[in-house]
Specification:
370 residues, alpha+beta, FAD/NAD(P)-binding domain, D-Amino Acid Oxidase, Chain A, domain 2, 2 domains, eight-stranded mixed beta sheet, six-stranded mixed beta sheet, 30% strand, binds flavin-adenine dinucleotide
Length: 370
C-alpha cells in the first residue's frame, strides 16, 4: 500500500509517522516546506483536559498521552516539557490588584495580576511546534516515508470515477492507493476534487522574543483590558531554548491560495508587541526574533474533519483542528493510520468528526486562483 499525504503540517507528518510504525509506505506532498504554516508558527501548548466535555475529549486525552510517549521514545528534540499554566488579568486603564490570588512572576508588570492556576505539570505541557512537526517527518522517513516538495493541484481516479488512483503534483501524476487531504486551511481546495465541506482559515499573529523568564517558566493566558476598553487575550509560552512565544491578535484577512503569501497584517505584530509590553514590560522590550502570522483550519461546527470521504474509495481527510492541532496531531496520526489500514479506529472513536455530517461545498462556491 502507498498512501499519499497532501500537506506537511503536524497532521500530515503525524499520519506519515504512524503509518511508518505499521510499515506502510507514504509520501508527504508539501507545497512550501514541512512546518512552514501554522504547524511551525503556533504556540505548541498542550493540555490534557481543556477539551473535556466536547466530542474532542477522547482525541485530546489520547494525544496528550502520546506526546509524552513520543518525547520519550524518539531520539530527537522538540522542547517537550510539562509546565504550570496561569490565568493573568491585566489592564492599561485601571488597577487590577483586586484580582490577584496568586503570586505574580516578577517579570510581569504592575498592571498585571495572577488570578488563577489553569493547569499544572500533570495537565499542561508544550512543544516547539516546528521542531515537533519536522521531528515527526524525520522519524517517519527513517522508516521509509518520503517527502516530495510540490503543489497538489488535483486527484486522479480509476475508470469507475469513484476510486482514487493518485494525485496531480506540479503537472504530473503521482500514483497512490489512498490519498489523505491534510492541507490545513488549504484543504478547502480539495472541495474541487472531492465532496468535502468548507474549511476556513482564521488568521492569528505571533512574536518570538529573545527572552527567558528569570524563574520557573509558566504558560500565561492573559485577559488584557486595552486602552479602548476592549478585551484582548494574548497567550505567552516560554520555550526551553531561551525564547518566549506570544500570540493573540486575530484578523479577518482572507487566506492566500499560496501559503508563502501568508504575511502579518500591517501593524498587527506591532500591536501585539505593544500589548505584550502593557502586561510584561521586560518581555515587550526584548529583541523580536520572529514576527509572523498563520491560519488555523476550522470547519462550520468547530470540530475536526476526519475520516473517509463519502463515495470515493481511497480518499481521506484530516483537518479542521482549529486551536488544538499541535495537541491533537499524534492521536489524529494514530487514528487515521488505523482507519486507512484496518478500516476502523481502535484507540479513539472519530465518528463525531466524519465529513458527511456537513454538506459538501459546491464547486461554484470556490473562487480560488488556479
Ligand atoms: C497563532 C496560532 C497559535 C496556535 N497555538 C496552538 C497551540 O498552542 N496548541 C495547539 O495545539 N494548536 C495551536 N494552534 C493550532 C495549530 O497550529 C493548527 O491546528 C495546526 O498547526 C494545523 O495543522 P495542519 O497540519 O492541519 O495544517 P498546516 O500547519 O496549515 O499545514 C498544512 C500544510 O499544507 C500545505 N499545503 C497547502 N496547500 C498545498 C498544496 N496545494 N499542495 C501541497 N501542500 C499544500 C501548506 O504549505 C502547509 O504546510 C495555533 C494556531 C495559530 C494560528
Amino acid at each position: 500500500m502507498h498512501v499519499l499525504i497532501c500537506g506537511g503540517g503536524v497532521i500530515g507528518t503525524s499520519i506519515a509517522y504512524f503509518l511508518s510504525l505499521r510499515s506502510v509506505k507514504s509520501t508527504v506532498i508539501e507545497r512550501t516546506g514541512v512546518a512552514n504554516a501554522a504547524s511551525g508558527k503556533s504556540g505548541g501548548f498542550l493540555a490534557l483536559d481543556w477539551c473535556d466535555g466536547s466530542p474532542v475529549e477522547p482525541l485530546a486525552r489520547r494525544s496528550f498521552e502520546l506526546h509524552d510517549e513520543l518525547a520519550n521514545s524518539i531520539d530527537d528534540a522538540w522542547g517537550y516539557r510539562r509546565l504550570d499554566t496561569l490565568n493573568v488579568v491585566a489592564s492599561t486603564r485601571r488597577d487590577v490588584s483586586a484580582y490577584r490570588q496568586l503570586d505574580s512572576p516578577d517579570w510581569l508588570g504592575r498592571g498585571a495580576a495572577v488570578h488563577t492556576q489553569l493547569g499544572s505539570q500533570s495537565t499542561t505541557a508544550q512543544v516547539d511546534p516546528a521542531a515537533f512537526t519536522k521531528g515527526m517527518m524525520r522519524a517517519a522517513m527513517k522508516s521509509g516515508a518520503q517527502l516530495l516538495i510540490g503543489n497538489v493541484t488535483g486527484l486522479t481516479f480509476k475508470a469507475d470515477g469513484a476510486t482514487v488512483r493518485g494525485a496531480m503534483v506540479d503537472g504530473r501524476e503521482i500514483a497512490g492507493d489512498s490519498v489523505v487531504i491534510a492541507m490545513g486551511p488549504w484543504s478547502v481546495l480539495a472541495s474541487q476534487w472531492l465532496p468535502l465541506p468548507a474549511v476556513y482559515g482564521l488568521k492569528g499573529h505571533s512574536l518570538v522574543f529573545q527572552f527567558e523568564p528569570p524563574m520557573m517558566p509558566h504558560a500565561l493566558f492573559v485577559e488584557l483590558e486595552t486602552e479602548s476598553g476592549g478585551i484582548a487575550s494574548p497567550e505567552v509560552i516560554p520555550r526551553d531554548d531561551g525564547t518566549t512565544y506570544v500570540c493573540g491578535l486575530s484578523s479577518e484577512a482572507p487566506l492566500p491560495v499560496d501559503p508563502v503569501h501568508v504575511v502579518p497584517d500591517d501593524g498587527g505584530c506591532e500591536e501585539l508587541q505593544a500589548m505584550t509590553a502593557a502586561f510584561a514590560p521586560q518581555l515587550g522590550k526584548a529583541e523580536v526574533l520572529a514576527a509572523q502570522a498563520c491560519y488555523r483550519p476550522i470547519v462550520q461546527d468547530g470540530l475536526p474533519l476526519m475520516g473517509a470521504v463519502p463515495g470515493i474509495s481511497g480518499a481521506y481527510v484530516a483537518t479542521g483542528h482549529s486551536v488544538w492541532g499541535m495537541l491533537n496531531g499524534p492521536a489524529t496520526g494514530e487514528a487515521m493510520t488505523e482507519l486507512i489500514i484496518d478500516g476502523a479506529t481502535r484507540a479513539v472513536d472519530i465518528s463525531p468528526f466524519r465529513p458527511e455530517r456537513l454538506a459538501p461545498l459546491e464547486a461554484s462556491d470556490l473562487h480560488a486562483e488556479p
